[in-house]
User: Fold this.
Amino acid sequence: MPALLPDANTLIARLADAIAPTLTPNTFIVGIHTGGVWVAERLHALLRCTQPLGTLDISFYRDDFSRIGLHPQVKPSNLPVDLEGRDILLVDDVLHSGRTVRAAMNELFDYGRPASIRLAVLVDRGGHELPIRPDFAGHTLTVPSNQNINLSQLDDGHLTLTLA
Amino acid sequence: MNPQLNPDGSLRHLLTLDGLPRTILTHILDTAESFMDVGEREVKKVPLLRGKSIFNLFFEPSTRTRTTFEIAAKRLSADVVNLNIATSSQTKGEAILDTVDNLAAMHADMFIVRHAQSGAAHFIARNVAPHISVINAGDGRHSHPTQGLLDMFTIRRFKGEFHNLTVAIVGDVLHSRVARSQIHALTTLGVPEVRVIAPKTLLPTGVEQMGVKVYHDLEAGLHGCDVVITLRLQSERMKGALLPSAQEYFKFFGLTPAKLALAKPDAIVMHPGPMNRGVEIDSEVADGPQSVILPQVTYGIAVRMAVMAILAGGTTA
Assistant:
């Protein structure tokens, strides 16, 4: 039975509302490939952020590289501004173990020393394995470890969450 | 069975480009593309190969190849040991294996091998423990796969596609492991016309069977080319009188601005280095606007990072 998941766009709007009061001209939004970039693009537009959008592919920083090897489609990370002293809003679609976020923070620090990093996720599904918690979560629920929440983008650009 | 592939078809060693499928070549080029920005960062490193030990085994001298392999390994956070092993003509297989076994006992994870004898890297690859990968950094006249790959990467960066190109390889094909690797890669990647341009004495017999068009006249061969690859005249490998003199060679096969003008106006000029200025290439061309010889060196780092990352990620089953 497919569980009822909230509409992704509603969650993004909710996230944007929560983030808006904390935004400064120094905030730089960075999405993690692939789902995090989709969410970050929409937040970036909703928040009318004047800074360019950053994207991060954490393939080179994964802690399971020696077991599973390199992801076949690594996309280049694109951080168009100097990170030194920035307030970074890191965006991902689903927070699970926290390992992706750890890898992303390691990568960010190889580009410079930001003043702060905050984490925004569409869904916090529990199952954390590291002391990493979101500053902003569109939705929080507990999903059994044998199930996954996936964000996918349809051809018309619509985002949808599925549980499998 | 291809000795450089795992049973599942993934890359186990990189020994030659001969017989490697297009999917693997493209995967390496795509991965290299994603490593391109690492050199531009504040911290020019990614942690992929942290804790891995890579040994540069150079039985034959090299500056550029050894250095770019070393930089590539260091940017992946590996520990690199460089061994320049002066080799005597008596060096036989046993001696090489003794060296390799000793290094394996020091917990090596990867060997990068340059050797004057064709087949040396294959020989080492056949005799290493299952967790060790071998990269051929040039063996005799046989193969230099990472050079071939970085040349393909350079062509793709400047020309975008392979399927509409005419590529000419000019010069000492006979002694060139680089030319063999380039020809294999170009044909695998779907370049419709690969030409070799050289005097008869500098072409291996049966070169036509590699799928190339043979020209003995530089002007005729350059006409309409998108990419011109000049090869170093390898005088140190020359036995007997293959050529009257270097001056004579330059007169007929040296790439001058006037000759380059016969290729397409946007043709790029490549050279694997080291160059003999005034022998196979005129300085005006080597330093000219169509030359991409220095970008080749830069791209070589990203390509070697890609090969090392793919090998290291695939071997720990």
Remarks:
- Chain B touches chain A through 23 residues (CB under 8 Å).
- Residues 15 and 136 of chain B are 5 Å apart (CA to CA).
